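hey so u asked for the seq, here:
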Amino acid sequence: MKTNAIRIHQPGGPEVMVWEEVDLAVPAAGQVLLRHTAVGLNYIDVYHRSGLYPAPLPFTPGLEGAGVVEAVGDDVTDLKVGDRVAYANPPLGAYAEVRLMPADRLVKLPDAIDERTAAAMMLQGMTAQYLLRRTYRVQAGDTILIHAAAGGVGLLVCQWARHLGATVIGTVGSPEKAELAKAHGCDHPILYKSEDFVAKVREITNGEGVPVVYDSVGKDTFLKSLDCLRPLGMMVSFGQSSGKVEPLDTGLLAAKGSLFLTRPSLMAYTAKRSDMLASAGELFDVVEKGVVNIGINQTYALKDAPQAHRDLEGRKTTGSTLLLP
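ran it, C-alpha cells below
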C-alpha cells in the first residue's frame, strides 16, 4: 500500500523535510500496521534531522505517536485490529500517516486516555517518570531544579514533583513562561536571561544547594548547574537544546563536592518491555488521576512539520506539540 510521510534525504535545517508518497509492505511476523491519529513533536527529532544524531538516509523522523492497529503480522497475539495504541521509542518513522511498528514496542491505551493526549505525553511523560522515579528518586521535602521548566518535559516534571511533595525551582526564558511554569507547580520560576540562576538557587535553599538538577539545555547551563548542587548531588544531563556539553575533567566533580553525573536516555530506561510497560503504566495512572495534566499547546498538520521544527527551535512553543496526519 501507499501512504504519505515526511522524508529526509540529507541532514540540515527544517527545509530538508519533504512530504512524499512512500510504499508500505504488509506486516511481517511481530509487526503491526498502525494508522496514526496523532504524532508527537520532540527535540530529539531536531537532533535526527540536523545529523547531530545520525540516521541512515533517507529516513522518516519521529519517535512518538498514537493511533489504531489496522493489521497484524504472524506471532502477534496481544494486539488485534482496532486496538488503540501509543509508543515513544525507535524505530524512527512516526512522521507518517501509516507505518509498520514492532508490536512489542506498543502500549495499549486505557479507555480514559484519548489518542491525542497519548501522542502528546508518551515520550515526555515517560521521560519525566524515569527522571523523577528512577534516575534520582524525588522524595517529599526535596528541593529540585529543572531547566526549561515551561517546555514539554518541564511542565510535566513540575506537576509530578509537586505532587511528590518537592519544592520546584525552574528556569524559564520569559515572564509568560514563568507564569505558565508557576501554574503547573513550579514554586520558584527564575528568568535565566536576566537573573543569575546559581545565586537564586543558593538564596532559595539558604546556601545549601539542591540534591538534583535536571538539565535538557546542555552547553549554556551545564557548568552553572554543577554550582547549584549540594555535596553528593546529582547532575542529570538529559538533553542539549543549546548545544553539546564540552568535554569535562571529572576532577571538577570532586572539587564541587563529590557530585554524581549521569547522561540518561529514555531508550535505555525502556529497552526492556517490562520497564516500558511499568513506566507507561505509572504515567497513565497520574494522568488519569489528574495529578499531571497534558497541555497540547500547539498543533500542526503533519505535512507542515518544517514549520513546527522552526517554532520549536525558535523557543516559540510551550508544553506539548502535535503533528496531525
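The two ends are 17 Å apart (CA to CA). The longest strand covers residues 31-40.
lmk if thats what u needed
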